UniProtKB/TrEMBL annotation:
<feature type="domain" description="HTH cro/C1-type">
    <location>
        <begin position="87"/>
        <end position="141"/>
    </location>
</feature>
<protein>
    <submittedName>
        <fullName>Helix-turn-helix</fullName>
    </submittedName>
</protein>
<feature type="domain" description="HTH cro/C1-type">
    <location>
        <begin position="19"/>
        <end position="80"/>
    </location>
</feature>
<feature type="region of interest" description="Disordered">
    <location>
        <begin position="197"/>
        <end position="217"/>
    </location>
</feature>
<dbReference type="InterPro" id="IPR001387">
    <property type="entry name" value="Cro/C1-type_HTH"/>
</dbReference>
<dbReference type="Pfam" id="PF01381">
    <property type="entry name" value="HTH_3"/>
</dbReference>
């Protein structure tokens, strides 16, 4: 009988020990008081020594422990993450949002959202609403949805002079940006590339593989920055 493949374990939740220690100190709480509150309010058998271990980086809280710790410290989990949120799960936890709540706001089932949180494949409207619910900037949205490589590919095509054909695909990836801003950025990328090639006496375009992938992306985000602030 074939064995069922097991899902890979989830990555640890981001955690910044110094942030946790600073917030606790601001509230005038001791590690023992925090441990007692975790046990009394959230049924977590956490000894004071474990709280101290979290704060010095010798141990890492679980997802449940992080949420409970943030509530005990009267702050959002994101403050204890130290700006290290990367995945959609991280950004959801940073706001102390359960999957049920995000699914409700996106008007999908909890099961569907749990799957999509692992590998986002939502349509344009769902992606726009996701960014609103999780308070994601356009660039953070691309990173959290693991769409950076696809964006790089489209931007490379735009620098080859085919920028008009990339407007809609880029908008599908980043629906929180208007097509007008995307058109402006892609046209500028294409024009700058053509100018650069002409100055060096080369052809108007070059094969995509000869163009550094990171440069078009960085330039793109600079060009659309006014639309993201």
């Amino acid at each position: 009988m074939p064995r069922r493949s097991q899902a890979s374990p989830a990555a640890p939740v981001p955690f910044e020990p110094t942030a946790a220690r600073a917030v606790r100190a601001e509230l005038g709480l001791s590690p023992a008081m925090v441990a007692r509150a975790l046990g009394d309010s959230y049924a977590l058998p956490v000894p004071p020594s474990l709280v101290i271990s979290w704060e010095v980086g010798a141990a890492h809280p679980t997802e449940r422990e992080l949420i409970a710790l943030a509530r005990v410290l009267w702050c959002l989990p994101g403050r204890l993450m130290g700006g290290r949120a990367v995945s959609l799960r991280d950004h959801r936890l940073a706001l102390d949002l359960p999957r049920d709540e995000v699914a409700r706001r996106l008007r999908i089932t909890r099961r569907d959202y749990a799957r999509m949180e692992e590998r986002w494949d939502g349509d344009r409207l769902q992606t726009r609403e996701l960014a609103q619910v999780l308070q994601l900037s356009p660039r953070t949205l691309i990173r959290a949805c693991d769409r950076e490589q696809r964006l790089d590919e489209l931007l490379l095509r735009a620098t080859d002079g085919r920028w008009q054909a990339q407007v809609r695909p880029v908008h599908e990836l980043i629906p929180v940006l208007s097509e007008e801003w995307i058109s402006h950025a892609l046209q500028a990328l294409s024009a700058e590339r053509s100018t650069s090639s002409a100055l060096w006496g080369g052809p108007a375009t070059q094969p995509a593989e000869e163009i550094p992938q990171e440069e078009p992306a960085e330039r793109f985000w600079t060009l659309v920055e006014p639309a993201t602030t």
